[in-house]
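Shipment paperwork, digital attachment
Item: protein structure file
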Amino acid sequence: MLLEFKTSNYKSFKEELVFSLVPAPKQKGLDYSVLVETVGKKKYKGLCSAVIYGPNASGKTNIIGAMDTFKSIVLRGNLRNDDDKSAPNAAANALELIPNNSAECSEPVCFSIKFVADSLLIEYGFTADLGRFLEVDYSRKVLSETLSINGSVIFSRNDGLEFESLDTIQEYQVNAFEQNAEGAIALAKCNLNDEELFLMNGFKTMFSSKLVALISDWLDNKFMVIYRADSMHLIRKFSDPQKKSVYVEKTLNEAATCFGINSNALGYLVEGETGEAKLCSVFGASKKGTAIEAELFESYGTIRFVNMFPLVVNALLNGGTLVVDEFDASIHPMALMNIINIFHNDEINIHNAQLVFNTHNPIFLNANLYRRDEIKFVERDDITHFSSHYALSDFGTTGKSGVRKNEDYMKNYFVDRYGAIKDIDFAPIFEDLLSHRNEV
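Attachment content:
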């Protein structure tokens, strides 16, 4: 369960961004949105959903991009660029794209995350010197790095490396660690690499491969961050696939039927040796046995839904956190509303799954659907061009700026009560074009 993500000097977020899924105080109603995880004798609460609003180019996607970039850097364990250029989030692979482009000198980039996994409260973060924006050949360096478990610091890295409460992770330590603890600590302190994260290298090898595996598994499989969902292509693999075979999944087709696909089935066509499969439309009756690539027959919205739905299933079955850029693009609001309601359903969302997405659709600005602390905003200053992030609950409930539970959130948003909206008028551009044409 994600509790909090922080970053600073990430693209338009020059100052610290704190994206919190911890319930704000004094928020009443919609208690089904509040998840609870037990860690030892303590209970931690998290929100099961959040929706992010703001005008184009305000920085909404940068929040999701920062999460994706952090995840990518941690999983590969270093500050070196990744040769894989196929991912839609270029900043995750080419780190010179991360720093805010207004800085005249190098300023640190910071990331941190707090989450609950396997009954542990895990807090991990690092600060890095990546140089200035587009400075490709800069000698990058990890400036600081900290890992805490259940509120106790395990290690902290600044000018050097310090260990504090290793007893907290005793059951996760490598075999015979206690007998070799002094040697391992001395070796770790002497072998820090400026470009490598200690968590994923020395700590993993010499201290606790089990704990790092737990953290890596959560980041890799349960922290599902989809940057630019319009470019997402779900790749399915099947064990022991039969060549030229079509695999039709019952759950997928039941969902597709609810979505509106009822003239044909959907399946996965396996053609090669790798087991990878392509989504296809399967026809019966007079065209029995015919399967063609879905892109040739299905609408863009259908393909988007089919690619997205297995991730929703995965999140709900495994207690994952699904974060999606433009989740609602090309999908009907009624379908989205139902998915949101499922995440809010205590009887279905029994594993504490979470759904976070950004949108331009005002239909979700609804007091009966979202709590005030689940509605987030992003706006960008016209002078500095820096982005800022805040929640509807930050306005409080009293005074002129206060927001009460039963107010019309949508109406208030469009009359600029909350900010994160921009008045757009293209008319002067066309008037100017027409006047110049008339002059000619």
